[in-house]
Write a structure and sequence with these properties.
By secondary structure, the chain is of the alpha+beta class. It has helices spanning 26-47, 76-87, 90-96, 146-152, 197-203, 271-275, 278-291, 308-319, 331-340, 353-360, 378-384, 406-412, 427-440, 466-474; strands at residues 5-6, 54-59, 64-69, 98-100, 103-110, 114-119, 122-128, 132-138, 156-162, 171-177, 185-194, 220-228, 241-245, 254-258, 262-264, 299-302, 323-328, 344-347, 366-371, 385-393, 416-419, 457-462, 481-485. The chain is elongated, with a radius of gyration of 28 Å.
Length: 490
Amino acid sequence: MGNSLKTQSSSNFSCCYSCRQPEIPSHERNNRRKMNQLQALLNDSLIRTKHVENAAIINIKERKVCASTFGFNVPPENALNLISTFYKNLLQVRRGGLCFKEKYYKCVRADEHSIYLQNPDGGLIVVKTKAFILVATYRVGMYPSVCVEAVEKLEKMLAVYFDCPGGPENLYVKEVMKPQPGEGEVLVKVSASALNRADIVQRRGKYPPPKGASDILGLEAAGSVAGFGPGCKGRWKIGDAVMALLSGGGQAEYVTVPEGYLMPIPNDMTFIQAAAIPEAWLTAFQLLHFVGKIQKGERVLIHAGASGVGIAAIQLVRLAKAVPIVTAGTQEKLKAAANAGAAAGFNYKSEDFSEKVLEFTQGAGVDIILDCVGGSYWEKNLSCLSTDGRWIVYGLLGGGEVHGDLLARLLSKRGSIHTSLLRSRDKEYKEWLVKAFTEDVLPYFSRGASPHLETLVDSIYPLHGIAEAHRLMEENKNIGKIVIEMPASS
C-alpha cells in the first residue's frame, strides 16, 4: 500500500457500500474536506517527491494529529510535546535535543518556525504555522527543507464567502487555505479592500469570475508584499506597501496578484485610502483615455457622479483639462461631486438631465458620456450627445433593453457606442493600463502635487460586517467608496 494517506477518523465511517450510509453532520463533512486537503498536501508535496520518509500534521487548536502517512502513528503525548516545544521549551530543545517515538534526536537548528534534528538513523523536521505543526522523518539523501514550503500551504486565512446566490444575508466569513503565488505572482497581505457593484452582482449569481480567477469577492486591495512566486522580476521586496487591481479574491487576508497589476502606495497615503483606488480609478482612467480618447476642452457627462468611479472620473476629466458634468440622485451627492470638481450637476430624480445638460452646454451637448445605467437612459443620453459624440456603456443598472429607434437617432448624430468591462480584460491589457496609470496619474496623489487627486471614502466596515456593507451599497446611500478593513490580528 506504500505511503498512501489516511485521516485519523476514516475508520469510523467504513462499511459495505451496499449498506445504508449513516447521515454525516455538516461539521463532520467540513472536517473531512479539510482532511482531504491536508492529505493531498502531504502526498503531493512530500511523499511522491520522496523529500521525506513519513509525515504527520498536528492541529494545534485541537491538540491532536489530524492527518498522516500510512502507518506513521504519532503518540498523543508526542503530539502534545511538539506543541509545547514551540510555545514553552524551544531553548531546552536547542540544548538537549528531543525524544520522538522513543528515539532521541540531537538539535541541529531551531527557531520559532522550524526545528531540524538528527540521529544516526536519519533526521526529523518539525515546522509550525499558526494552525498546524508538520512533523516528518527523513533519511540521508532526502531534502526535508521542502517541508517549510509545503507547510506554508497549510496556513489558513479569513475570506468572504457565500454558498448560494442571493441577498447580503448569504454572506459570511470563513477560514480557507491561504493562496500560494504562482508563476510571476506576488502574495499580498491585505490590509483593506473595497466594495464594487460587481461584488453585488456576483453575489446575486449574475456575474461569475473570469476563468482561473478566485471566486472570493473583491476586485481591489491594498496591503504589503508577503511573498513571491517563481519568475518574478524583482520589482518589489517583502514589506512593500502596494495596491492591486484584481479579478477576484480581494476580500480576504491574503491574495495573489500578477506582478504587473501592483502599484506602489504613495508614502503619505493609508491602506484605507489606497484600497479605494485600483478598480474605480483604473476603470475611470480606462474609459476616458483608452476607450473615449478624451481631448482637452471636451465636455464629459458622468452618470452616478458620487460613486467611486464617478468621483474618480470627475478628477481625471479635470486632469485632462476637460469639463466634467454629473448626474446623481440627491443634493448631498451633487454637492460631493461639486467638491470633487464637477462643473455642473443635475438630480436625475427631480429634473430632466438631458435638458439641463443642453442648457449648460448652450445646445452643443457632451462629447463623451460615461454610462453605468444603460437602457433606461438611452433617449436622454442621445438627446444630449453632441455630433460625433462617444457614448460609453460600462454598466447596466437600469437594464439592458432598449425600446425605440436608437440606431437612427445615433446615426443622425454620427455618434458611436462603446462598451467596456475591465474585469474580463486579458493580462497584457491590464498590465498596460496599470503601467500607464502609475506613470501618468499616480504621482498626483502625493502631497504637494498640483493638481492634487484624492480618494473619497464613504465608510469603513470590518470584514465581518461585509453583509451590512453590501446593504449600504444596494440602497445607493454611499458617497464615494465603501472600504472593507481586515482584522487587526491578520
